[in-house]
Specification:
By secondary structure, this protein is mainly α. The protein has five helices and no strands. It has helices spanning 8-14, 32-45, 59-71, 74-88, 113-116. Helix 2 packs across helix 3. The protein is globular, with a radius of gyration of 19 Å.
Length: 118
């Protein structure tokens, strides 16, 4: 087990929120936990998908599953599950909230940089 891999406790929270396997024919589906560990490895280390260590399975499978789960809203369900878990343990302070908008471009229009200096 790598230091990047999920613990059994983390997996127990995440697993119920993953889409159910539906494929009955064809090639067997790669293990969800192994695939998720591969996705997390790439996201944590910043390596290219092609440099994913072989113990995580196919880099293409990991990349494809990341996209599938993104489109299905899986990541938000997992995030909410962890928030609920932390809230149940009273480890969250709901009176404080932070919003990071650094990945969004500002809207052009009424307010411009010149307006902010006034």
């Amino acid at each position: 087990m790598s230091r990047h891999d999920l613990t059994d406790e983390q997996w127990a929270v995440i697993e119920p929120h993953l889409p159910k396997r539906t494929r009955k024919r064809g090639r067997p589906r790669n293990d969800d936990r192994q695939t998720l560990n591969g996705i997390l490895y790439v996201l944590k280390t910043g390596c290219a998908w092609e440099d994913l260590p072989p113990e995580y399975g196919s880099d293409t499978t990991c990349w494809r599953r990341l996209n599938e789960w993104s489109q299905a809203g899986t990541w938000e369900r997992i995030w909410r599950a962890f928030l609920s878990e932390l809230d149940a343990q009273t480890k969250l302070e709901w009176a404080q909230a932070f919003l990071d908008g650094s990945s969004f471009l500002p809207k052009r229009g009424r307010w411009s940089r010149q307006d902010q200096s006034r």
